[in-house]
Amino acid sequence: MFKKMIQEKREYRAYKKRVNELPEEYKKAMKAIENYMWNFARGAGMLELLKKILEMFENSASDGISVRNVVGNDIAEFADTFLAEFPEETWIDKLRKKLRDAIK
Question: InterPro entries, from UniProt (predicted)?
Answer without folding.
Answer: UCP029876
